[in-house]
TrEMBL record:
Belongs to the TACO1 family. YeeN subfamily. NCBIfam families: PRK00110.1, PRK12378.1, YebC/PmpR family DNA-binding transcriptional regulator. It is found in: Cytoplasm. One of its GO terms (cellular component) is cytosol. The keyword Transcription regulation applies. Pfam families: TACO1_YebC_N, Transcrip_reg. GO terms for molecular function: DNA binding. One of its GO terms (biological process) is regulation of DNA-templated transcription. It comes from Cohnella rhizosphaerae. This is Probable transcriptional regulatory protein OMP40_27260.
Length: 239
């Protein structure tokens, strides 16, 4: 599928190793998901997805409990879920998902991160149609053939199964996220290397060294923004 999920996670982990930024972002995401429904993951599928993602990033239990307690309490802090789309060098495309309590601040910051680093923000729909929403779930200790057989036995429809180093990645419709996980859990697998709802590009672009450096600078500027939760793009990361 063009992405090296382990490499992406390792880069993010290295970048966030000495900060609490990733935990703070998960704290907001957990709070928002819990406020949209019951603060119980068994009764709130959106919350369950966020908590599964948090586990793969080793978010401390104290951060999770604090966000859930806040959602259960009297807090009425309100966040808007906004998506921005834009372009980088040489046909690169970027989708930016945010959670914000100040829409004007976030829109201005995202626009500046694009424009100051050789990119430009587009209108809604200018990029997203070139991506497919997907569940992405990875496990270790199995071969691709074993995972395919497991999904068939569990009657779970998937789009693709790919081996990446020592991890097998399953791509499926977002609605199949829990079904894929449950199939693994029934087979005794409860730890996931990757558990994401993502936007997968239909086609990838490969950048020259200079364009790649410019693109990564732009991407870093976007990901560093306080309100940004997820960033998706169509730049080939395999090399």
């Amino acid at each position: 599928m063009g992405r090296k999920w382990n490499n992406i996670k390792e880069k993010k982990a290295s970048k966030d190793a000495n900060t609490s930024r990733v935990y703070a972002k998960f704290g907001v995401e957990i709070y928002v998901a819990a406020k949209k429904g019951e603060p119980d993951p068994e009764a709130n599928r959106a919350l369950k997805v966020v908590l599964e993602r948090a586990k793969t990033y080793n978010v401390p239990r104290a951060i999770i409990d604090r966000a859930l307690d806040k959602a259960k309490g009297s807090s009425e802090e309100s966040y808007s879920e906004l998506r921005y789309e834009g372009f980088g060098p040489n046909g690169s495309m970027v989708i930016v998902d945010t959670l914000t309590n100040n829409v004007n601040r976030t829109a201005s910051a995202v626009r500046a991160a694009f424009s100051k680093n050789g990119g430009n923000m587009g209108v809604n729909g200018s990029v997203a149609y070139m991506f497919d929403a997907s569940a992405v779930i990875g496990v270790s200790g199995k071969t691709a053939d074993e995972v395919i057989e497991l999904m068939l036995e569990s009657d779970v429809d998937v789009r693709d199964v790919v081996e990446e180093d020592d991890t097998v990645i399953v791509y499926a419709d977002p609605e199949q996220f829990h079904a894929v996980q449950e199939a693994f859990k029934q087979a005794g697998i409860t730890e996931f290397a990757v558990a994401e709802l993502s936007m997968i590009p239909q086609n990838y672009v490969t950048l020259t060294d200079d364009a790649q450096a410019q693109f990564e600078k732009m991407l870093d500027a976007i990901e560093d923004l306080e309100d940004v939760q997820q960033v998706y793009h169509n730049v080939d990361t395999e090399e």
